[in-house]
Amino acid sequence: MAEQVIRTAGNKVRAKPLPPVKARSKWWITVSLSLIAVGVGLGSYFAIAGFGEPAPQIVPNGAFAVIRVPAGGNFQAALDRARPGDTIELAAGATFKGKFKLPNKAGTDFITIRTSADDSRLPPAGKRLDYKKYADVLPKIVSNIKGEPAITTAVGAHHFRFIGVEFGPTIEGLYNIIEIGTTDETAIEQLPHHIEFDRVALLGDPKWGQRRGIAANGKFIKIENSYFADFKREGEESQAIAVWASDGPIEIVNNYLEAAAENILFGGAQNALGLVAADCIIRDNHLNKPIEWKGTKWNVKNFIEIKSGRRIKIENNLMTNNWQMAQEGTGVLFRTAADSGPQAVVEDIEFAGNIMRGSGSAINIFGGEGKGGRNLIVRNNLFEDISGKKYDGRGFFIKSTTFANVVIENNTVIHDGSITLAYGDPVKGFVFRNNIVFNNEYGFFGDNVGPGKPALATYFPGAVITNNVIVGGKASDYGTANFYPPSIAQIGFIDAVNGNFQLDPNSPYAKRGYGGKGLGAMLDPRSVGGR
To answer: What is the distance between the alpha carbons of residues 328 and 16, in angstroms, rounded to a whole number?
Structure first.
């Protein structure tokens, strides 16, 4: 009988008979199959974990770690490995392709994903990214699956921050580059939250455009100091940022946002939880549609559209270039819409300290669907070059119906159409004071009733219209509490030719506003739109 040599615990050698040949064959087959199974399992594990790619390097950093992902490395493995408080450094200038998912991890310290470049090679904190200047140091994250985003989130994923990273277009510009949430969550705890983007770039495709940059359907989302370009589509809408399945808060601060349909959109689609975004801030951004897009195939609509939202502040933003194409060329819409769901509401909105320059019309106010619209303040804004003639629109300041409690004060509006185009149900609680506007052909105009007093009585019952400069208007239409210079030359702007429409201290209207205030917007154009 054959023997095998084995060692005992005491390192003594002794012989042990092997099993008979027939039994031995079965034994060896069993062992071989087991080894093969283990090998297949390990092979699958290594393939899933990306061990064919350069492994991330983990460097201790006090209680946390820095996970360095080299060019060609496995970004998803780094995301899965990272613990709250860790930093993932992606090799500067390298490209990482795939559909990456932010996992849900316990803890409230942020996991930071950033460029490996030193902070000195990025703009300082709080400064907007100049993409052309810093493009070389940004690692690039790009989806390589048609119809899929580059970044998605696990259920309830939270506390991730991106700094100094570029996100490229999806294949053929389809859908979202970054998709936070699914809109199908059935409990508020399932929403992703505390996800931030700072000094990042999101780019559409020059040929295909891009449907959307960030679908920000989570809670406590911040997008700041960043650069978005080439968000445009033929035959469909496009947005740099859209929010429709969140109850907020959302902060969009100090970004350059370039998009054709809506640079920023709130609402416009339903969500399983019936949420309305609330306590949101849109501040210090430059919202632009490159004038070179005019006359092309890209669907152009508005700068900002709020179809559903409450307690939203829109402050100190610069908006440039908007024209009639897929809509009539109105810059900003506060418009409840049934496509946002039955809970849709537009309420407690403040639009202040903004400059809109170059648009077919200025503002649309509509509260006739969902739960309606109420409590809107439009204060201290400059609307310059609002022209139906130049931008194929109608040149009006406000188009309105079916809203409650609207205060329009201290705005300067350089426009070539009506002050209002009112229709449908009236706007109740309308206050219009301390503004500088132009009567042009129709002034306050109402559908089926014409201009002047009939329009005010029908569509703005009980309105307060006082202390306004209405260039070319008449006291017989709007009362003696307003001012009616015959032309812009009599107003007394500091430097209208160069875009400074503040009143000169020597203007006859400098202190003629309600409560002794000045009239019109008090904005230095150099301070608006962030940097």
So the answer is: 93
Phi, psi at 120, each rounded to 5° = -65, -15
Question: Does residue 407 sit in the same domain as residue 293?
Answer: yes
Query: Do 337 and 451 belong together in one domain?
Result: yes
Enter the tokens of residue 76: 């998803």
- Residue 306 near residue 337, CB atoms below 8 Å: no
- Decide if 140 is inside a domain: yes
What is the total count of domains within the chain?
Answer: 2
Q: Is residue 454 included in any domain, yes or no?
A: yes
151: domain range? 56-231
Query: Do 296 and 227 share a structural domain?
Result: no
Please say which residue of 189, 214, 231 terminates a domain. Answer: 231
Residues 87 and 67: their CA atoms lie apart, in Å, by 6
202, part of any domain = yes
Could you give the CA distance from residue 529 to residue 531 in angstroms, rounded to a whole number?
A: 7
Q: How far apart are CA 216 and CA 192, in angstroms?
A: 9
Q: Which is it for strands 151-153 and 100-102: parallel, antiparallel or unpaired? A: parallel
Q: In 3-state terms, what secondary structure has residue 442?
A: coil
**What is d(CA 250, CA 240) in angstroms, rounded to the nearest whole number?**
14
Those residues with Cβ within 8 angstroms of residue 457's Cβ, 6 or more apart along the chain or in another chain: none
- In this predicted structure, what is the pLDDT of residue 40? 35
The long-range contacts involving 56-63, CB below 8 angstroms and separated by at least 24 positions, are 56/81, 56/88, 61/86, 61/87
* Domain edge (last residue) among 231, 259, 293: 231
The pLDDT of residue 52 is 58
Question: Of the candidates 304, 142, 115, 285, which has an alpha carbon nearest to the alpha carbon of residue 200?
Answer: 115
Q: Show Cβ contacts of residue 84 under 8 Å, excluding neighbours closer than 6 positions.
A: 105, 106, 107, 108, 109, 110, 111, 159
Tracing tokens 């809670």 back to the chain, one arrives at 219
What's the sign of the alpha-carbon dihedral 270, 273, 274, 280? negative
Whether residues 344 and 205 fall in one domain: no
Tell me, what DSSP letter sits at residue 154? Answer: -
Low-confidence ranges of the chain (pLDDT < 50): 1-51
Strands 420-422 and 469-471: unpaired
pTM of the model: 0.89
Distance CA 266, CA 148 (A): 22
Tell me which residue of 396, 234, 229, 239 sits closest to 325, measured CA to CA.
234
Nearest Cα neighbor of 321 from 298, 337, 349, 351 is 298
Our measurement of the distance from residue 156's CA atom to the centroid of its chain's CA atoms, rounded to an integer in Å, reads 20
d(CA 358, CA 366): 22
For residues 299 and 415, membership in a common domain is answered with yes
379-to-292, 313, 350, 354, 406 alpha-carbon distances in Å: 31, 11, 8, 9, 11
CA end-to-end span of the chain, whole Å? 88
- The per-residue b/e assignment along 249-286, b for 16 or more CB within 10 angstroms, e otherwise, is bbbbbbbbbbbbbbbbbbbbbbbebebbbbebbbbbbb
Does the residue 64 lie in any domain? yes
